[in-house]
């Protein structure tokens, strides 16, 4: 009973932090505009997946809530070639230590592919980042002209 009550107070504390941060930012954001500015159509899927998840309870685009802002994450990992795989795994497994001692809860219900889309959106928020573009199919090889004579 004591542990259950303690967990209840912890949850209430996190909720108070989250609600308080929204009250103090006083900024209305149009999610569609934000997505297009951050990475265009390539970021829409990751943003939509994040909106369906509980990401925004602990993170926001610009401000630290419980965890770091998405822009802070993007800045830290923008030149890391393994960031998509590394951060996708962090979303699914959870963990602590990279941004302090407050743990990030695991999200085992999120697939590796969906976590990757979420990370691509986050990385698109880095200053000067170029949005991820879908791969274009290779053009068929053309034969070199044959000279006669």
From TrEMBL:
Transmembrane segments: none annotated. It holds the Pfam family Cytochrom_C. Residues 41-126 form the Cytochrome c domain. One of its GO terms (molecular function) is heme binding. Binds 1 heme c group covalently per subunit. InterPro entries: Cyt_c-like_dom (IPR009056), Cyt_c-like_dom_sf (IPR036909), Cyt_c_ID (IPR002324). Coiled coil: none annotated. The keyword Coiled coil does not apply. Residues 128-149 are annotated as: Disordered. Residues 1-23 form the signal peptide. Keywords: Electron transport, Heme, Iron, Metal-binding, Signal, Transport. Heme c binds at residues 55, 59, 104. It comes from the Bacteria. The keyword Nucleus does not apply. This is Cytochrome c domain-containing protein.
